[in-house]
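Q: My labmate handed me this sequence with no annotations at all. I'd like to see what the chain might look like in three dimensions before we decide whether it's worth expressing. Could you predict it?
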Amino acid sequence: TFEKMDKDLDYNADFMTGLRNQIESTKAIEESMSLSTAIFVLLRESISTKMPAEVVANKHKCEFCNVMTEPLDATVKVLDEGVASSLSAARTEVKTQLGPQASKDLQKTLRDAAAPIVESKTLIRNSLSFFTDTDKFMQVRGHLSGDGPNTVKHLVNSGIVWAIFLTCCVGLTLGCFCLREGPAKKPHKMVPRCAACNWCCSWCFAMWVFLIGGIMLTVAWPMSGICLIMDDLSVQMLKDISPALGMNTTTPQQMYDIIDQCIVPSDPNSNAQLMDIIKPNASDPNATLRTVIVDDLKDMIMAKFTAIDTLMSSGDVKLADNQQMKDLMIMLSDPLDMMILFQDPSLINSDPQYKDMFTDATLTAAATGSSVRCPNGTVGPKTPAPMGNKSISGVENFVATLAALGTRLNDRADCADTVVCTTGSTLLACQAGNNFVQLKRNILDLTNFRCDVFLDPVDMSSDCDPLNMVGTLDPATSKTTWTNTCQKADGTMTVKRKDCNLPQFVTYVQGFKMRVDKSLKRVDMTVNETGTGISIGMRDLVKRFIFTPIEFIADGVTCGFMGQYYRQVVNGLCYQGVVGFVLIGKSYQACGVIALFMIVLMYGVWRRTIDNVNATKKVQADEVFVQ
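A: Here is what I predict for the chain of 627 residues:
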């Protein structure tokens, strides 16, 4: 499994090629999300951090900027938590975790993870090389099974035949000795001859079985020593003997952990997980392979796809149809200058330039809560409190009220006219009113409002406004091609500063209604066109080549079997093999002892029978002499 994942992570492997194609074919979702996010950032900055400081310096306050904070936060949250964001996040996570460099790092992690397993196997194999060497084992097996001309099996069989033949001969000799030694006074000469033959053969047989038995017992002695090492194997023992074995491990502690928890565990019934033992990151000794691959890779990527499933199942996936988005676009329809207000009379009621205005109740009422927009107006109902449904008096209303104290000059193109004050008791109030109008003029005359746009990616100098973005459906691919998106090839945008006056700024902010609407519709269309490729195609690709092997490794790769097989080897080799080897050797020695008995016996039979034969010959010779 490690090797297969390693090969699949090669740059030119089918998996990596297919993944790159999927990532490239779905980049539109990231581009659409990038544009929408940039538009919201541009709107927020335009009405907050980039609002001219002169507005406050002239005793006014942008209430629109204040009340829009909460709706903007809510809509940005909707955008960030929507299906499109989840699709983009899943794509980005896969691209990050399985990109060219990341895949190389993962390959290295897999190889580092496999190293201690290989080293553990090598250490055990080298320590028991005589028993694990296939060639040597087959040679021994051939000698024992009789596959060759000069084999142990043939040698043993010949010994058995020899023993049977010798036993039969001894039995026949004893039978002849006991039953019929020969005719009366004429002992049979074959009995001593057979006894002598048996006596000599028994000497050869005894030497042969004593030699074989001695060799087997001699070999059994070092085998018993190896068995003691195998039976008492422990990490501390390996640390003590590894220098003598010539083992130079690159990750010794991991190898020892595998041996301690897998091969010779304290609990024979334990079944340790290799993923929890292997620690591939030397810089972080607590990071196991499960942490690196499952938690940091699989879980992080799968969390993104799970979020997609959750959002898809909710049914509310179109951002353009989201009620909070619709409410935001309604709020943007209200002119911003209607909510740049003079709200706090305490700011100027003690100032010599304006304090006399507050002696006139009508002027005070017309000034308090007035905007810098000429006509009166009513804020839309979707705007949050305290501005929603609120009636706002404009500059025209204040100037008209002030004109009652003098003659209106009509000296401006807009409505912020001053008045030639009539002398009398209202003179000071009228003059203070003119000074208050000057505050409105200062704001109306500002030219440093920020109507920022983006740089045109074609020449990186011209203005580019997403307001002019257009989408065209390609029937061949069933995907929409967008122009005037202001995005460079990598999907990013560069903001271009653009100063403007208040009327232009009002139009600019109202234009965000269309900018947001177009960007959201683009996001929704992109979700329809690329969603399946990410949520199904990309997920299936990653799951088949990465997650399934990871799940197999995480849940199925245990090492308890190593200890069981090792114990079986020890039991079979030591408690059965070596013991049997010793018993066979002792059996050969017992055969030798029996052969010695047969030697003594046959010598006795030979001695008696040969003496009888010789005695008979002497008697016969004497009889011939007498005659």
